[in-house]
Write a structure and sequence with these properties.
Elements: H1 4-12, E1 18-20, H2 21-24, H3 29-37, E2 41-43, E3 49-51, E4 60-62, E5 64-65, E6 72-76, E7 80-84, E8 91-94, H4 96-106, E9 114-115, E10 121-126, E11 135-139, H5 146-157, E12 162-166, E13 179-183, H6 184-187, E14 188-191, E15 194-197, H7 199-204, H8 220-236, H9 245-251, H10 256-264, H11 272-282, H12 286-290
Parallel strand pairs: 11-12, 12-13
Antiparallel strand pairs: 1-8, 2-8, 3-4, 5-6, 6-7, 9-10, 10-11, 14-15
The structure holds zinc ion.
């Protein structure tokens, strides 16, 4: 099952953040409803055109309705009349403004949310964190628009210390200099139907060290110990078809690189609360995760 939160973030990186029933039907319905209830996803008018699903051509057709308005259908040159499931006509739009409002509230920022002239970029406010009072920004953009968003922030606010949230993984966190570029997916997550920001993760980005991003990585023995824990869990879940790290990561609703990051203690990849949720799911305590047993494990 796909992660509705991740789907939402993916859409925010697109110029037109619209999605259809076909895009979302593989997502967890409860998660999807939670995002709708929070206003991150809003309903749009129903689709007037839909792709044919019964012949190999996937041609798009205008939807026709029966006289009583209960049955929808399209013509297909190969098959004739094709009934369309009415649910498939539903459409939604991701709301970056609502996400901006929510971010400012969850981070308890002071100041007023301001859209930047560049569009799709917002100043969210400021707060005291890790000895700084950084400026927070959010940009609903794709990776190729990052440079222009950073430029827009610079033009409006100067060389300030800040954090720019973007809806995609950003390996180039140094691009903005004092402006940390952070993937929303790493700083926030959906837990039990509620969106939460990992404040500790946010604070770590402003901590000491080169960029405040990477504490000491886990030693080899610890990494192997953790890999063993995941392997044991994987074996217990074999009947559910979880046979490798990719399948395990999907099952845990995260990217494989995040899971590997947890094994390495690479805090750039995940936040503390996300780790806790993962450990809870696999039934491992934090203590057990962080401590290599003295005796070698029996195979
Ligand atoms: Zn057809």
């Amino acid at each position: 099952m796909e992660n509705a939160w991740q789907q939402l973030l993916n859409r925010l990186a697109w110029a037109d953040p619209e999605f259809t029933y076909d895009d979302m039907c593989a997502c967890d319905a409860e998660e999807f409803e939670a995002l709708r209830a929070a206003g991150f996803i809003s309903d749009m008018s129903w689709a007037t055109h839909v792709a044919c699903t019964v012949c190999p051509n996937a041609h798009r057709e205008r939807v026709r309705w029966s006289e009583n308005g209960k049955r929808a259908f399209i013509p297909c040159p190969a098959v004739g009349t094709v009934d369309v499931m009415v649910e498939r006509l539903r459409r939604w739009r991701a709301s970056p403004t609502q996400l901006s409002t929510w971010f400012a509230q969850e981070l308890a920022l002071s100041g007023k949310i301001q859209p930047l002239p560049a569009g799709q970029t917002w100043f969210l406010g400021r707060r005291r964190v890790a000895g700084h009072t950084p400026y927070f920004f959010f940009a609903a953009i794709g990776p190729d628009e990052l440079s222009s968003a950073v430029k827009a922030v610079r033009e409006a606010y100067g060389q300030v210390t800040g954090m720019l949230f973007v809806p995609f993984p950003s390996p180039i966190s140094a691009e903005g200099g004092k402006l940390r570029i952070v993937d929303v997916g790493k700083a926030a997550s959906l837990q039990a139907g509620r969106m939460v920001v990992d404040l500790q993760f946010v604070a770590e980005q402003f901590g000491d060290g080169a960029s405040g991003m990477s504490p000491k990585h886990a030693q080899k023995s610890l990494r192997e110990h953790r890999r063993g824990i995941l392997l044991t869990y994987m074996e217990s879940m074999e009947s559910e078809g979880i046979q490798d790290m990719t399948a395990l990561a999907t099952h845990l609703r995260m990217d494989r690189s995040v899971l590997y990051g947890m094994v390495r203690s690479d805090k750039r990849k995940y936040g503390e609360s996300r780790l806790k949720v993962m450990l809870l799911k696999i039934g491992c305590s934090c203590k057990q995760w962080d401590r290599v047993p003295k005796l070698p494990k029996q195979a």
